[in-house]
Predict the 3D structure of the following.
Amino acid sequence: MATISDVAEKSGLSKATVSRVINNHPYISKEKRELVYKAMEELGYQPNPSARRLRGQLTNTIGVIVPRIVNPFFSYLVDALEQEAYDHNYQVLMFQSDEKKDKELYFLNLLKTRQVDGIIMTSIESDREVIESYTKFGPILLCNEYISQSEMPVVRVDQTKAAYMGTKHLLDQGYRNIAYCTGGLFVDDGKDKDRNVGFQKALNEYEIEINPGWVFINKHTIEDGKLVMQQISDMDYRPDAIFTGSDEIAAGIVLEAKSLGFKIPEDLAVIGFDDQPIAEMIDPALSTIRQPVKEMGVQSVDMLLSLLKNEPLAERQKELSVELVIRSST
Amino acid sequence: MATISDVAEKSGLSKATVSRVINNHPYISKEKRELVYKAMEELGYQPNPSARRLRGQLTNTIGVIVPRIVNPFFSYLVDALEQEAYDHNYQVLMFQSDEKKDKELYFLNLLKTRQVDGIIMTSIESDREVIESYTKFGPILLCNEYISQSEMPVVRVDQTKAAYMGTKHLLDQGYRNIAYCTGGLFVDDGKDKDRNVGFQKALNEYEIEINPGWVFINKHTIEDGKLVMQQISDMDYRPDAIFTGSDEIAAGIVLEAKSLGFKIPEDLAVIGFDDQPIAEMIDPALSTIRQPVKEMGVQSVDMLLSLLKNEPLAERQKELSVELVIRSST
DNA sequence: GATGATTGTGAAACTGATTTCATAATTAAT
DNA sequence: ATTAATTATGAAATCAGTTTCACAATCATC
């Protein structure tokens, strides 16, 4: 590969001048500029990012942490992030935390050594203080997941409202015995906590108490959903509707319900979350709460890039709105 | 961040010695070694990858090109690749080619500037010569997709056999009017070509001719599958079975067939490819050809790492075997 | 005891860029 | 016409590592 010295030699100029041309510095005569461009062209020159990085420049690489890429919600999110990054000439270093603290920390460390310019976290495992302590090495943006009370920049949806909308919809449809199934722990911080609030708020309006036996926590996969349905099936007193934390769980519930002989939504109404492709694929199609995944990705990258350029932000905590999608499962 | 000079100073030794300790060079006394470790520990020192990279060392980063991460086959593949990479202390720079040549080339260029040590390509857009020309900058491994007649290292499945198995299964079940639906072009190179061969081979054994009107090319998504089914529905003379290039297309066909009032497999038998989660989710569940995705990811990373270390390879072209999974759609 | 090989260490060069500092050549202002 | 400001360029320092080269010190061999 040609180096900046080669370009300097070929153009009969110094490395300094070449560097200035590359970086669009002022005070360079038009002729020399042309000379440099010509030499770069002929040599097929490309600046070495490692050398730039070393000199303290940015690397055009952002890190993205996801819990697991096989989860469609996250693969769609990463898709949006990668595309928006590419459009701004950035590359994406993708990393799966697998919901483990040590993996997450390993990746955050890349910020220290300037392997990435900034990081977008779509999930959070470590404690708030730990994550905030890394912000001194570079910008960290929370996307989708977030930490209550934190000042960190974040792009998220209004989960309280989302959960409220979903639950309200079930209540409006006449369901009164509503179960609740969440990905986190019921007392969790951030996203899940906000959802809980929305869920409870809707119930309060109808003066309904939560039935603790109908609360399922830490559920994520289709398989989890099937297990939930089995538990419900075994109950003496069953709910007539269930609010779930993702379309995958909802799908698992629907699938298992069918094979157990329950009718959806007559015996059990099910509402999903996310609006993934799967929601339309199963029968009956899932009512769900659509998350603006594409927009979340775009906004996240844009905000991170602004942070990198030290541009003033209109708002450090951006909230996107969700949409209730009514299909046949409720 | 502490630098190697800080460690040198703290330990009272030279940078050279510290570097030797870090890189496990021979001929260093035990005492000095201890001194260095102690200093590194106290300073929380971590070597700067950019500086190492610049000096011509490896970066512990591999690039992965996928056409589109939202395609479950590829998100499962990336999942496997990322995990195996992590286990060997490597990071993954993920990139979507979006099936576009220019994007692919953009990414291959990272090899030139040593941004990545090597690249795993799970899809191929450019011509063979172009891709091979990049191998002089670092190892490129083909995974899943491959180029006929090329010497490039590859991890793949025997697509000819896979397609043969699938088609044979349809024939054995008594179907004789078999349509064919592929992701590539029917005359394509590599993977798709091999599948065509297997498909034709099975037909030949039963002395059946291909019906050109029943060949669908360049189909990828669920949506594509639905469109294919609509076309079939409009035909005067319809096939009684269809071999597809992916479970997604197969799912689209099944979904649309149901809403058009066709019975699967009575009116039309459908066999998928990949064995993605979706195959078990739809009703009727898809018969399909299972690809060993996890193993492909593991083997690919292992082989690339061997190439990076210049280790001799048992085989540069590794072939994994597939498995016929019979469910209800055939 | 001289010679050669092995072991152990540091100074300095090197990787490929950017930036500081110095300086020359114009242009503008007094 | 002299001084000051602006424009334009290059030499050398710098970033944080690794590697080469030189040189001791220790050990083994004849």
